[in-house]
Design a protein that fits this description.
heterodimer; A: 238 residues; alpha/beta; six-stranded mixed β-sheet; two-stranded parallel sheet; 39% helix; 15% strand; B: 265 residues; eight-stranded mixed β-sheet
Chain lengths: 238, 265
Amino acid sequence: MSDEPLLIKDEDGVRHLILNRPSKINAIDYAQHLRLMSQFELAENDPNVKVVALSGIGRGFCSGDDLSAAPYEGEDPHRHRKVDLEMGSGPAVLLQSCSRLHHLSKPTVALMHGIALGSGYDYSLSCDFRVVTPDIRYGDPRIDRALWAAEGWSYKLPRLTNLSVVSRVAYLGEIMNGSQAIEFGLAHAIVDGEPDIRESSRDFLNDLIRVSSSAYTQVKHLILRGTDTDFARALAFT
Amino acid sequence: MPDYEQQFSNDSIACTQDENVLSFRLLGNHVNYESLDSLATAVAAAHDDPNVRAVAIQLTADGDDPENMMAVPQRFQLRLPEGSHGHGPIVEQAALTALREFTKPLIAYMRDVVNGIAIDLAATCDIRIANSSMSMCDTRILQGRAANTGIAYLLPKLVGQSQAMRILLLGEKLNAAEAHRIHFVHEIANDANFDDHMTTFSNRISRMATRAWQVHKMQVLGQQHLDFESAMIHSLGIRQTHVINDRVEGIKAWRERRDPEFSGT
């Protein structure tokens, strides 16, 4: 197994972006956000990619931001977008990366097992679909640490579910298991995760591959654009 | 800081403060202008009071009392048009607006009977907890009256349009289990220990990172009618202009593997 922090694997039209920092349950540092954003761009422009699937190696999908990470010292394309003196441009890059994923014209799916928290949860909300294992621990506990969570979830979550569920997930910081994620309308399928989440999600991914790419792109665009507009304007987009 | 109990308790509503929780309990069996105005003015005062970290409202009410709503508060006198159609739900909407603008945690305890505008009050809260024998029903439609106080906006966003229509247009009565099933009620507690549960739950919420709760809520409610791009800018703007002091304690406690002790700032 490669020790690259982000594995890229193409399989039957599916571009798997696999978080690979298992010793930290795939906690995401600044460089990883940049890698992901770059990969979303590449996948968008690669005609061989029909579906983009995000998943993780090891005990879980993602434990959130890497709070113990050293400050990023590489080239920072977002250095001019500092939004917090302590956090530097971190929030801006997560917001931008999630926004890029949200607007990807191709099918996107988060395949989540074990743990999916914090920024991992943010990325999952930016996908079109979410597949979970029954024992997943899924949600946003940042409020338990009084941490900022301003990366787009507050727009997406109420539109994916309803404001009552928002109270539970965002204000109370409740962690969902697989059946709760289904009940709340956030997850679309439960798989057993064996031998790994990618393999056990194969049927779900195959269904996505079979959909007409151009029709999918058009309808996704209409859904996203139509979410915040009136009926007459929504029709005008077609 | 205000003496809430002295200032906002009256024949229609009881107000008490216990540590950082400001609690209200409707008196009698109906909601009236006096109780609504007390609620509105009290939460406005509590918004910037660091000693109030959560507000709890105990709701037991068979709706409003159209025959005896009591006097319209003086501050609304210039908003009452004359004529046979009477005045609109100005006091009701002002109270709901005040609750909606209160960004600290708001908890509704729905007890026994919660009808009509009492559902509006519950719907403005962040968390709704019911006792096991609670029932809720909006009978205004059955009386030929319009539920025009705010619930027609709030309820579809909480439970979806299908369920909202069932409640507001058919006047269906829901028991606690059904209200929980459709996600209006977040939790059901036994009748026998409901009082204890209210105290325990309110105290737990008031010890949370309530400042973080506020900035979460500001984003969610503020972005309800924004498009995606505007919402992202809104989030970054909120982040730039609001401080959460408790984040330092949050991280410190995480590193020391202990429960945090938040100040609510």
